[in-house]
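Section 3.1: Structural characterization of target chains.
Under the original work plan, the team committed to producing a structural model for every single-chain target entering the pipeline before any wet-lab resources were allocated. The record below documents one such target. The sequence was received from the expression subgroup and is listed exactly as submitted; it comprises 885 residues.
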Amino acid sequence: MNGTYPLIDVLGQQVAYLSRELAERDSVLHERTRHLRVAQALAHLGSWEWEIEGGVVRCSSELYRIFGREPGTNLLTFDGFVAAIFPEDRDRVIASINHALGGQVSYDVEYRITRPNGELRTIHSCAEVLRDDNGKPCRMSGSILDITERTSIAETLRSSQEKLKQALQASGIGLWDWNTHTNEMILSEEWKRQLGYEQTELSDSLKTWEGLLHPEDRTRVIGYLRDSVHDHHEEYRQEYRLRHKDGTYRWIESRAALVTEADGRRIRFLGSHMDITDRKGMEQAVRESEDRYRTLVDLSPSGVFVFCEGQTVYVNHRGTLLLGATDASELLGRPVFDFLHPDYHHDVRENFHRVLAGNVSVHSAERVYLRKDGTPIPVQMEAARIVWKGTPALIVLISDVTERKQAEEALRASEERFAKAFKASPHPIIISELDTGRLVEVNDAARQLLGYGMEESDGQILSELEGGRATEEQIRFRDILKQGGPVRNLDVNLRARNGDIRQFLLSSELIDLKGRPCRVTVADDVTDRNRAEDELRRSHALLRQVIDGSPNFIFAKDHEGRFAMANRAIAECYGTTVDDLIGQTDADFNPHWDEVEFSREKDLQVMTSLQECFIAEEKFTDWSGRTRWLQTIKRPIVDDQGRFHMVLGTSTDITERKRMEGVLLQHEQDLNAALQDRERISQDLHDDVLQSVYAAGLGLEACKSMVKRQPEFAADYLLETLEQAIGQLNHVIEKIRNFISGLESRVVKSEDVIADLRTIVQTMCEASSIQCRVRIDDAVGPHLSAESASHLINIVREALSNALRHSHATRITVSLRQLLGSVRLTVMDNGIGFNPKLAQGVGHGLENMAARAQKAGGVFAVRSESHRGTRILLDLPKDSSDYFN
C-alpha cells in the first residue's frame, strides 16, 4: 500500500501537468483562432473545407459573412454554395472544380455570388485537393476573398482611363513625354494614330520623331527645341510638318512645358501633339479667298463704289469705265450725288439714310447715273451698309442695264410671237391654276380637241377634262408640280366633250402668272401611234413565233460576227436560249475553229461584196458533238445609204439527205460489183463450159459418120442413141445460153416489174397441179428501184421453186402490196413446213434470198411450222426519190 501512494501521486502530478499544458495550449489555440478570425474579418478572407465523400462543408465565420449569412445558422452545404453562385458564372465554377478534382489544373477562379438580400459580390477563390493513398480526392480546402471593392475600383480606373483615351482621341490630342537627361521619349497611341501608325509600328524614341520631320523644317524645329531645353523655357510651342504613313506630310502644333521632378530637377518635357493640317488649309483658303475677293471686286462686271461720309473713297476698274473715267483717281473724293441724275437725288438721299441707320439691309432700285461727260446711263443700283476703316459707309454696286432694257423690249416682242405660236400650235396647250385647276388660257388645238368654244373653256376646271383617271392620280399629278419639279411625258387619258377618250403624253412646267402659281401643260396625242405600236408588237410576236417555229436556222449577225437575231432552232443546236445567244459569236459556243473560221469567212465575203452567197454544204457541230451538214444562204442587209448593216442567213439541215446519198452511192457500188461478177461468170461459162459442150457436140457429130460404116442393125441403134445424146446436149446448151443471158447486165425497169412477176408465177405454176393465187398491187411498181425490183423477182422465183418442189402444198399465195413506208412481199403455202434452224447449211436457197434482201436494204423473215405451212416475208423500203417528189 505504501508503494502505491507515491505512484498515484506521480500519476496525479502528471495529470495535473498535462491539464495545465493542455489548458495553456487551448489558450494559445483560442488566441490564435481569434487572431485568425480577426485577420480574416479585416482581410475579408474566408476559409472552407469540403469532405468530398460525406459532403460536409466546414466554413469560417468570415465566409458566412461574405455569403451574407449568420455564422452557425443555416449551415452552408455544397448545393447551397452552388445555388449562391451568379447563374452566368455557375457552369464555369463547377467546371473549374471538376478540373481540379481531376488533377488537370489548380483551383483558382473569380466569380460572382448573390447574397440572400439580392446583393451581388465578386470573390476570388483558391483551393487545393487532398488525395488518399490511391490518389482519389478525399478533401478539398480553400479560401475565399471578397474583391468586390477592388474590382469596382479597377473597373472605375479602367473606365476613367478609357474615357481619358476617348477624350484625347475625340479632341485629336496626342501626348509625348521626353526625359532630357536620359533622352528617353514616350509617344502615346493617339500621337502615332494621327500619323497613320499602330501602337507597335513606331518605337518610342527621339530619333523616331526626328526621322518624321519634314526636311525643310528639321533644322528650325530641332534648334528651337534645344534652345528651349537649354534656357528652360516655361512654354514650348512649335508648328511643323511630320510625315504620315501614306507618305504625305501633316501640319502639327506641338506644345509642352517642363515638369518638376520630386527631387526638384526639371528634366522632363510633357507635351501635346495636335494635327492642324485642316486649320492650316483653312488659313490658306482664307488668304486665297481674300485674294480672290479682291480680284473679283477688281474684275467684277459691276461697278463697285464705296461712299464714306458722302465722299467717294473706292472705285473698282469697272466703275471707272462705266462713268467714263480713265483712272479711279479722277472719281475719288467726289460726292456721291455728282454721279446721280438730279431727278433721283431726293429719293436716293432718303434711302441712303435708311440704310446707314440700319432700317433696311439693302437698297435696290433702277436709277440713272451720269458719266463724266454728263451722258446718262441706266443702271441697277444695290446699296448696303459696311464699315470702312472704322467708319459707317455705303457700298454701292451699279450695273449697266442698257442691254437689259433692250432685252426687255425684245422680250415683249418675243411674248407677242409666243402668243401667236401658242394659239397656232398643233399640240393642245393648257394654262391652268395650280391650286384650283381652273383654266386660264387654252389654245385653239386644245379647244378643238376638247370640243369647247372660246367662251366655254374660260373658267373650266381641268379635272373635268381628265377623263379616265383616278382622283388619287390627279392629286399626285398636281402634288408633283407643286414640288417644283417638271413633269415629262406623263401617260394620261383625256375625254373630249363628245365622250371620245384619247391617249396623251402630258408634259408640264410650273410658272408664275401675275403672282398666281400656274402650270403650262402640253399634250401630245399618241392614240394612233400607240395603236400602231401595239399592232407592230403583235406583228413582231407573230413573226417571232413563225421564225422560232421554223426547223431551219434563221439568224442575223453584225460586223463583229455577233448574233443580232436568232431563232430557237439554232439556239437549241448550240444548247442555249435565244436571249443568251444574242450578242455572242459562233466562237463562244462552237470549239471547232475550222467551222467557225469558214462561217466567218463567208460573212466577210457578204460584207465586202454586198452580194448573196450560196453555200451548198457547210459542216456544223452542235452542243452534243453531233456533226450536221447545212445548206446556207447569206445575203447582206444595207441601210438607207446602201451601207452594210448586218448579214441575214438561213440554213437547212441536209444531214439526212447526205446520209441517203451515201447509202445510194454504196448501193450503186454494190450493184456495179454484182454486175461485174455476173459478167465475169457469164464469160467463164461461155468460154469454158459452153465451148467444152460445143466440142463434145462436134465429137458426137463426127461419130455419126463413123457409125454409118457399121452394119445396118448396129448403125441404126447407135445413130438413135447419138441423136438422143445430141438432143440432150443441145438442150443443155440452150439452158446454159439462157442462164448466161440472165447473168448479163440488165436493169429491170420499174414499170415492167409487175408484168415480169406475174409471168414468172404463171410459168412456174402451169405444170403443177398446185393452186396458185396472185395478189399484186399494180401501184407498187413506181415505188421500187431497179435494183430492188431485180432482187424481188429472184426471191419470188426461189421461193416458188422451193414451195413447188418440197412443200407438198395444195395452195400457194403470192402477195405484193405497199405499206406506209415500205413494200411488202409475202409468199405463203399450206404445205408440210420445216424447221428454219435445221434447214441451215442444207442448201443455198434461204441464204441467197436473205443476201438479196440485205443488198436491197430490206428486211427478210421466214416463218414455218411442221404441217402448218411456210410464210416468207420481205419488206423493201420505198424508193428514196419518192420523198423528194
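The first strand starts at residue 45 and ends at 51.
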